[in-house]
Structure formats: C-alpha cells, structure tokens
Fold this protein.
Amino acid sequence: MSALGIVGGVVQPVLIVAGSPLLVGVMRQVRARLEGRAGPGVGQPWRDLRKLFGKERISPRGTSEVFRVAPLVLVATTLVVAVVTPFVTTDSAVDPVADLFAVVALLALGAVTLALAGLDTGTAFGGMGSSREMTILALVEPTLLVSIFALSVRVGSTNLGAIVSATLHDPVRVISPVSLLAAVALIIVIVAETGRLPVDNPSTHLELTMVHEAMVLEYAGPDLALVELASAMRMSVFLGLLANLFLPWGIASTATPIALLVGVLALIIKVGLLGVLLAAGEVFLAKLRLFRVPELLAGSFLLSLLAVAASFFLA
Amino acid sequence: MSLVAVGLGGALAAGVLTALAAVVVPRRVRSAVAGTGTVVTGGAGVMAGVGAMTGSSLSVALPGLLPLSGVSLTLDALGGLFVAVTGGVAVAAGVYGISYTRSHGLDARGVQVVFPLFVVAMLLVPAAASVGTFLVCWELMALFSLLLVVAEHRHRPEVAQAGRWYAVMTHLGFVAVLIGLLVFVAHAADDSFPALREAGRHLSPGAAGLVFVVTLAGFASKAGILPLHAWLPRAHPEAPSHVSALMSAAMVNPGVYGLVRVGFDLLGGGTLWWWLLVLALGAVSAVYGILQAAMSTDLKRLLGQSTTENMGLVLVGVGAAGVFATSGNRVLAGVALAAALLHVINHAAFKTLLFLAAGSVLHGTGARDLDALGGLRAGMPQTTAAFGLGALAASALPPGTAFVSEWLLLQALIHGLPAPGATGGTAAAIAMPLAVAAVALTAGLAVATFVKAFGVGFLAKPRSAAAGNAHESPPAMLVGMGLAGVACVVLALLPTLVLPAVGTVSGVALGVGDPAVSGAVTVRLAGVAGALSPLMLTLALLAAVVLVVGAVRVVAARRARRAARLWDCGGGPMSARMEYTATSFAEPLQRVFDDVVRPEQDVDVTHHEESRYLVQAVEYRRKVPDRVERRLYEPVLAAVAAWGRAGRRLATGSVHRYLGYGFYTLCAVLILVAVTR
Amino acid sequence: MLGLLRKIRRTGRVAEPAPPSPVVDRSAVAAELGGSVQIRHVDAGSCNGCEVEIGSAFGPVYDAERYGARLVASPRHADALVVTGPVTRNMAEPLRRTYEAVPGPKLVVAVGDCARNCGVFAGAYGVAGAVRDVVPVDVEIAGCPPRPEAIVEGLRKLTGR
C-alpha cells in the first residue's frame, strides 16, 4: 500500500459521493436546456437527497431483511469500487481488490441485491423489474468482462491500475482497433447498466416500460435516498472507468498535491464531459422496445469479442 | 503407518462395517447408524486425501482379491484431492441423511446399506492403480448410485424413467472407458498404471488419440458434459436429496479425474487438438448447461443443469492447461489446472450445500417446482440462509467461492497469449478469446439463474399452500447444511488455505516442479502478474457497509420505521397469483436465446358452443425442451425402436423357426471358421 | 438527427420567464422539504381537464420542474399528492390508501374546483365528497380547470422557490 494509493482511497470515494448527484444534476440540466426548459438547477439531486434523508422510513408488510439491507449493500459495493479503482491516482488503496473481475463482480453484486429486494416485495412490478434487470445484467456482465479483458491482454495483467498505467506510458494504444472496438462495446453496456436511453428511460412514470425504477417502487425516505445515491454513484463510476481506461491523462501517478489536484480536476472534467455527451445524446433517442434491447447488447458483446480476438492477433 | 494408510483403510473398514451394521440393526436406529458410519467413512477419506496431497503416498497390491487382475491401489497427490473432496461431501451428506432418510421413508435396508458402499466405491476410484481395479471401482460406483437413484421408484413413476436413462447412459460411458483403456493396455506390459505410463511414451499418435477420444467420451458422460449430459438433469434430481448431493458434487468429479489421469499422467500430455476438443466441449457445456438452468423451473433439475455448467468450466480449465502444456508453457498450464481443480473443490462445496438445501425445501413443503414455492424465508430461515449462501457461491459473485476459481481460470486464459512462433499459436489465439467469452457469458447467466432460484423460491410471497405451511428441517439436516456452508465460507474467504496444495497437485500432474499459486491472504500466481485477495475484498465490503450504516445514522432523520401495506396502486390486496413466477422471470432471457433453446408453445382456444366469437377457455402451454436431446437422442432412440420392431418379425412364436435360426447360425459360424482358418 | 439539432438551435428556450415568487411564508412542512417536492398525481374521478393543465404545467413552457417539483411513479417516492376531480365512491378507499403509502412529512394539493367542492358533480350519486372529506388537504388550487400558472403557483408554495 503506497501513500499515493491511500490518498487515492480517501479522495476518490469522497469525490464520487459528493460529485455524482451533481453529475446527475448536470445531465438533467443539459437535457432540460436542449428541450427548451429552464431546468431545476444542478443542485437539485442533492436537495432531493437531503429531503429524502429527512423523511420517514417505511417497511412494506411481507418484506424481509433482504429488502432493508439491499440499499446498504448497493451503496457499499459502489463505495468499494470507488475506493479501489484508479480514478484519481494510479495506485489503489487495496491493490489486491483492484482487479477488473473483482470490480465488475462487485458492481454486479450491487445490482443483484437490488433485484432480490425487488423480488422480495412480492409485487408484480418488483418481479418484473428484477427479471428485466437480470436479463440485461446477464448480457452486460459478459460484455464488460470481455471488453476490459481485451485491454488487459496486451498489458498482461487484469489489475486496473496496471492497465491505466500502461496506457499512460504508451498513448498509441488508444487508437488501436482493440481500444476502439472495446470502447464502443463499453459505451453501449454502460448505457444499459446505468439505465439510460435507449435501454431504460430514467424519467418514465409508466410502470410497464420500467426496468430499474420498477424494482425500487417500494422504497421510501432514507432507503430511497441510498438507492438514488447509489445509482448516481454507479453512473459516475462507470463513466470514470470508461474515461480512465481510454483517456487516462491527468491521473496522478505521484503523491504531490499538484498532481493530486490535477488528477481530481481531470476526473471531474472527463466524467462531466462524458455525462454531458450522454445526456445530449439521449435527446436524440427514443427508448427501444424491451425485446430489442438484447439485440443491441448482443451486438456489443460481439464487438467486445472482436476486440479480444484483435488483441490476440494484433499483439 | 502413514496418514494415508490409516485414512484409506479406515474408510474402507468403516464403509463396509456400516453396510453390515445397517443390515442387522433394527429400523429405529438404522438411519442413525448408517449416517454416522458414512460420516466416519467420509472423515477417514478426507484424512487419506489430505495426507496424500501433503506428500505421503500409499501403494497396496492385493493380487488375490480379484481373479485375473488382482487389486492394486495407489493414492498420490492428484487422487488424494479427489478422495478428500468425496470424503468431505460424504460427511455433510451422511449427517444430513440421518434425518432425511427417516422422514422420507428411506430407512429400509436397501438404501441404508448401499449408501456407505457408494461412498467407499467413490473413494476408491481415484485410488485405483491398475485398469482392472479402476474399472471395477468405476462400475461399483455406477451400480450403487443407480440403486440409490431408483430408491423412490414406487412413489413416483418418473424416478423409474430417470433410472432407465441413467442405467443406459452410465453403462455406455463405462463401455467407452473400458474400450479405451483396453486398447491402451494392449500396448503395455500389464494393466498397472506405471506400465501404462511407460507405454504412453511410445504410443503412436493415432493410437494415443484413439485412446484419448474414446476414454474422453466415457469420462465426459460421467461429468455430464455435452452431448452426453442427458441423463444428468434426470437422474440427479430424482435421487433422494442427500444422494443427489453426493452424485452432483462428488460423482461427477471422477470424470475430471479420469481425464486428467489418462490425458496428462498416463498418455503424457498428448497433442494440441485433444485439448482444444476438451476446451470446446467444456465451453459449450458451460454455456448450454447454464442456459438450460436459467430456463428451468424445477429447483433440483436447475441444480443438476448447473452441474453440467460447472463441469464445463472445469473442462475449460483442463483443456486450457493441456493447450498451454503442449505449447510448452508449463507454468501457465499449472495455473489453468489449479483453477480447474479449485473449481472442482468449490463446486463440490456449494453444490452439496445447494442440493441439501433443496432437499430441505422438499422436506418442508413437498414441492420442488419454483412456480409453486416462494416465501420460504418465513418458515425456513436456516434453509433460506443456506440456499442464499450457496446461490451466492454458485453465481461467481464476491464474496462467494466460485468467484475465486473463475477469477483464477480467467487469469490463466488471459495470459494465454501465445509467444510468436510457438506451436499451435493460431489455434490458441482463436480458442482463448472464445473461451474467455464463454466463461464470461456463463458467469452472467449464472447470476440470473441463481437470482431466480433464490428470489423466486425463497423470497416474496408463498405461491401455494404447501409453501405457505413450510416448516424448518430437523437438526441433523441443518447440521449437514451447516457443514457444507462452513466449507463454502472458508473456501470463499481463505482459498489460500487449499490453493498451495492444489497448485502442488496440478504441478505434479503436469510434471512441473513449482507450485502455481502462493500467498497467505492474497492469491498470487507464479510466472504471471495477478493477485487477488478475497478476504480483503470481503473486509472492504464489510467496512463499507458499516460506514454506510453509520453515515445513514448520522444523516437520516430519527423517525421510527413504519410498517405499511404493500403499494398495490390503492386497489385490493395483491394475491400470490399476481407475483412474478420462475417462468415469467426467465421469459425475457428465453426470448433472447430463442434460437438456441427453441421453446415449444401452443395455445388452445375453446370457443363457446353457440358462437365461435365467444371464447370459453384459453389454454397456453410452454415447454423448454433440451434441444440437444431432441436433435441427437430422439432420432437414435427412434432408430433403435424401429430396429426392434423390425426384429420382432423374426419372432413369430414358432418353435420350429427358432430351431431353424439356431441351425443356420451354427452353420454360418462353422463356415466362417472353416474359411478363416 | 441534424434536423433535430437545427430545430433545437432555432427554438432555443421556450420556458417563460419565472414570475415573482408567490411564497410569503413557507409552511413548516414545506421548509422541511427544502426546495424539493416529489409529486404523485391521483385522479380521483376527474373529467381529465385538470390533467391536461397539470400536463402543461410540467411542460416546457411553464416548466414546474425548475422550482423543484417533479412527478414520480410511486407514492412511496412522493412528498405530495396532487388530487384532481371529485372523489368518487370507488376512488375514496384507493385515495386513502395512497395517502397512507406516502412517507411523512406529506402534503396534499387539491387541484380544480371539483377537488375543492365537487364542482358540477356536487350531489351526484357516484360522488363520495370533496378531497378534504377523505384526506387532509394543505393547498387548494381553484379553477375549472385551473390555469397552468395557478398550478405552478400552488406548487411553488410547497417548494418555496
């Protein structure tokens, strides 16, 4: 454990927790402006969270501990990912966990606990949301794994820090076919996994079209606040991962204050830009029919497979 | 006397004595005696296996015990691993069986006598040191398990059908192994393994390939590998649950053992295409097995299909090890084989737990159809916890057991980038990405499958009266599940306890000196960059949960939690019929993989008598058949049946004709003899 | 896609400038909500006139979201219920249950004359009463149907922005 890793392990989660609701605010604001609205302001998600934490907790009758624990686990898994993944610093606080399989599995674990909570309520919508979420996850997880593997084959390590450092030292990698294919595949699955258009509409009120929202219909107050915070954090984490796997420049590789400041700013700018692009892109898209989504995901799986094959052949 | 000798001797003696005791003791105590005896047998097996893995070995030759070939046993490190796994499963299943057999009317002599003997036969297979002994033990294992599978055939007709499938398939597998090994023995001095090892070095590639492919068919059928898997999801679920656990967690492993023993040890590694074949079979089985499980609504059948998946993953590891070994990368081969063997151990642990928990569900509700279960967490909290733990382990999520072995497997595959100019570079470069994709796809589908099994089966509201009245199982069954659960937890958090030994075993099997993996808390790989610490991951996760709980305490308002009705849109109370079932849960996935699984559905609309515009009833049926079975087995079965019908024309019932057949045959044989001499 | 982009550029901002804040003194509950009010809309028997107006209050021109109000899909997520129409017999119990489902602190807004005093439906055989006869009402918005400006003004009293 290096000093750099420990600093990163403290700065990153603080940054992610504080910044991800703002990222959601920025994305909503961008959408609102493109739709000709004024928008509620960048700080609105934080106001929502503050209010939710002040509200009453509700335990629907017939639910069990699974329902109550799920939001905690969801936030905790994302928090661990925020600590170990190289976002601000190339070193990780807990290096033996900064493995890409571990990170992907942790994010999947969060989604799984929420799906179980959706089933636990025993409502039709909860089950429906869980079923859809798991179908999407079953296709997203392999694509995530395979496309990041494509990047790790050349580095010879699945440690995310090592992958990021290798790209830092050899910038030409970024424009190789492997990187490009993997990047496209990753973008598609990140859109699916964070529940954005065209896979899921985050602002829908129509239960039959919901995926993520349907699972959390029963949550209220602080539990809901945790779920909302976690989904915002997951989005920042995914976008941060995308940014640093392909454009790692700016990340701190020494523990000097200047380097750290640059690292923080670089992450904010990169993730913010990606968020703005994602939000702007959404304005041009309509939601896909649910049974069209797997075709999109299968396409991205194929792309990631091509990326791995390319990484073996073009090495 | 060494640990191995005491252990193996003890296991043999305990098993046989238990069987004898089960014959004589009265029915009241029979389950307890047989269960305890099986536990002792299994414990002794673990002792022998651990002893063999830590360096001591044992060789016994008893020439007089069997006519013609005699019995010779050698327990080395590789065999020791499989003996230890079998012993461990037997301990948990033995404890569990004490209550389970009593409450399911299985305490008749038949089951109780055969159960310990089945364990003994399984313990002896990896210890056999000659073809004769190996085949005898293999066949005993198959026969005893067959007797146990059909134990409940009087109560349920489908058991008899499963038994028939199993009997035919297992014997076809046996014939394959027999032919393969006999061809091998024909080239050797005698039928002992050392002689075969010596002969393996000089075997022509054609003969070696023949031996490998034919034995592979036999071993793959035992491990439930495609396309010889059809018996497994039939026989494993229909057996009594503690037998299911033994079969699915332990009896599939001899298939892997045989493959490693014959392929790496006796035939000395072979050529690239053998292992590419193994890799392909493993990858296809893994994906197909988990796909079938994802569609399945029968809890035990789902677990059986997941066995095919996990054995597929093991074969991916074995195949990758072979590919690396034949292209000269012995270190990486060691990692791949260690991953496969670790997955064997992990799979044994969580599959035991899952089958025992499924048996507990069967005990508490009488149902195993997921569409009729649900809400078991209220009536069966311990079983729910056990199944949840097993499901976490099986879905390869941290902190579960399969997570570690799949990580190890992917590490091996990822580093399989062939060096320029290496033999078989192109083949490996095509095979490895596909293998990575197959493993990743399997991991994703396994998550969906086990969320379905646990979420639909144990959470939510009961979907039938039986599930609503579920009651917890008796203590012995809980202890059995507890033992398997502890094994799962230890293997998940501290895989480093067993990994060095597993690494040594794989090193020995491949003829590499160094252990492939090391590390006390963090798993570190030899020769390739890669480290993972499941313990630290779990601790980090726990710390994060504590942190979040604390933060919520500070931030959130101090209001009491209020219980409220479920949000039912303000309408009437929601009934269990409105819940998502296992079928509906899997429906989107089934649509996605429509072209692979080919579900069959038909809709019958009954119209009113007066008018065809009025509908009286609509009946909808859907079935997800095993497509391999439909395309491969059914034509063969139809051909055999047609052949049989044709043959029946010869049998008219006339004695004169039968005498005539005898006469003509005799003449034909005599002519044949006269011509060929 | 380029067409849409051009349209976005040409249209620019359609939201009308925000009128001066109608908030004189924030109620205790509104202060507790701190500028964020999630709203669950309940149609208790309306003729759908009010729904159309609520729809346009949340549309781009009036943009009620800019004041921190947002429509949500479940009463569990909500802080306020927006109830329209006279409460019909069949909707009285569901309305009570919806109110029960909202976690405290919670508010109820009765939108339209029907919700306030049953409007033209007063005395009809299928009507159970006005909204305040079924659940406690905090804010009432008059009109048949109320203009979107009135709805936005009522919601701003809750968000305090």
Observations:
- Residues 3-313 of chain A form one domain.
